[in-house]
Amino acid sequence: MEELLDFTAGMSLALLVLVLFSIRRQHIRVEYSVSWFGAALALLVLSRWPAALETLAGWLGIGNPPLALLLIIGMLFLLVIFRLSVIISDLKDANIALTQRVAILEYRLDNLHGEARTKA
Amino acid sequence: MTPAGLDSLLIIVPAYNEEASVGRVVEEIREVLPGVEVLVIDDCSLDQTAAAARRAGAQVLTLPCHLGLGGAVQAGYKLAFELGYQYVIRADGDGQHDPRYIPAIYEALKTSGCQMVIGSRFLEGDGAPSSLVRGLGIRFFRLVLRPILGQRVWDPTSGFVGVNREALQVFSKSFPLEYPEIEALVVLQRRRFRFMEVPCRMRPRMAGRSTITVMKSFYYIIHVLLGVFVNVLKYERRRR
Ligand SMILES: Nc1nc2c(ncn2[C@@H]2O[C@H](COP(=O)(O)OP(=O)(O)OP(=O)(O)O)[C@@H](O)[C@H]2O)c(=O)[nH]1
Ligand SMILES: [Mg+2]
């Protein structure tokens, strides 16, 4: 099961690099990179620090530390994805309000122009 | 356009890809209520809905991207509120709502003191819903809504709805995005607002296809049920 730990360490390193590059190329905003950084760092630490992982596994009542790590990975990414849903919902609310505002402004502007033309 | 005729009443017509019927709908409304403003809200239709509505003499509010029925109706409410209208009545762009019933809804709005008046197809006539699942859904929501609203509602899914300025103000701030009719009732109830139903007949749609299919009916029921309970639990969440 050591191989699994090596694998998750490699994956979390890859994730860290990916997030860094994405920020640099402005594919992802800094404020949305934080949760990914947190998740990747936590994974890296746990897969390179057997004592900590064993303690955690003990708390969870799981005899097999790598299995505990898999569970923790699952939970961490669930949290990150949930955070994304919250962010998307906020964006959608803002989007609805903006769309309606643009439509209303355009409507009133057209009417203003129309009135100006009939007066002239 | 300024609120004048008929005690500042605005008719709003949400329309999505209704070029085949929206013109006729607008003409009919203008025949029944000459001089009343008709505002068609074009939810970024892919066809010539906006042009057809303008030709028939309506004002058109064009959304720059597709929002869904509730978002479109709310845009109409916001505009009406800003322009100072006292009453807004919504009629569908597919011709199902016979405009000859608009005056009755308008009268009830003015005289009953209710913030909302629903044109209800089950108080008079056969009132056959447009499909079997739809009919079951309506029965189901009558049962669910009864204890929440503390009052019977016969046609909770009717989109043939009039509101006064008090309700306009509330709906400008908080209105469901999809399938708005039932949730709107709950939003009003949270403010201790009142509603009543007036009988009216509904017709088959003039043209085009209903956006509500059988699969969507089931999705609709679950979606709306969630929306109802969220609104029951939510006390005045702050919104933009
Ligand atoms: N703005 C907007 N309007 C919509 C949308 N979907 C439907 N509508 C309009 O809402 C009205 C009602 O839509 P319908 O598809 O007829 O739904 P319904 O009347 O509840 O269902 P049926 O009884 O089957 O016709 C019509 O005027 C449609 O044009 C949408 O996504 N955006
Ligand atoms: Mg319809």
Gist?
The complex is a heterodimer of chains A (120) and B (240). Chain A has 120 residues and is mostly helical. Chain A is built from four helices and no strands.
Descriptive account of the structure:
The complex is a heterodimer of chains A (120) and B (240). With 120 residues, chain A is mainly alpha-helical. Chain A has one domain (2-119). Chain A is built from 4 helices and no strands. Chain A has helices spanning 2-24, 30-48, 50-60, 65-119. In chain A, helix 1 (2-24) packs antiparallel against helix 2 (30-48), helix 2 (30-48) runs antiparallel to helix 4 (65-119) and helix 3 (50-60) crosses helix 4. Chain A starts with a helix and ends with a helix. Chain B has 240 residues and is of the alpha/beta class. Chain B has a single domain, classed as Spore Coat Polysaccharide Biosynthesis Protein SpsA, Chain A (Alpha-Beta Complex). Chain B has 9 helices and 7 strands. A 7-stranded mixed sheet of chain B has the order 3-2-1-4-6-5-7, with helices on both faces. Chain B is globular. Classes of the chains: A mainly alpha (120), B alpha/beta (240). The A-B interface holds A 93-94, 96-97, 99-100, 102-104, 106-107, 111 and B 1, 59, 61-65, 67, 71, 74-75, 78-79, 82, 177, 239-240. The structure holds guanosine-5'-triphosphate (GTP) and magnesium ion (MG). Guanosine-5'-triphosphate binds next to strand 1 and helix 4 of chain B.
